[in-house]
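Before any further analysis, we paired sequence with structure tokens, yielding the entry below:
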Amino acid sequence: MMANQAKVSVDTAKEVQNDASLKTKADKDRRLREKNQANTKRFVDERKNNQFKQNKRREKQKKIHETQFQDIKGYVQEVGMTTYSTRPTVT
């Protein structure tokens, strides 16, 4: 993701420098600043969305693990009960 964002930034700078419609340095600087602001907003939104998705996946995984843990815990208790109750007593 970071490499892609760096590539977009470099491409934007090249695009502005090669734009023939921008005659003065001030025009080029202004246009570059505008594009960089738009890119920055897009990058921040992209990171925020990725973080949100990651948190959702993490919470879902936690729920799955908790369910599996409870199933295993119940199974171990059940097996433990049957093992002790079927063991012959020595007198």
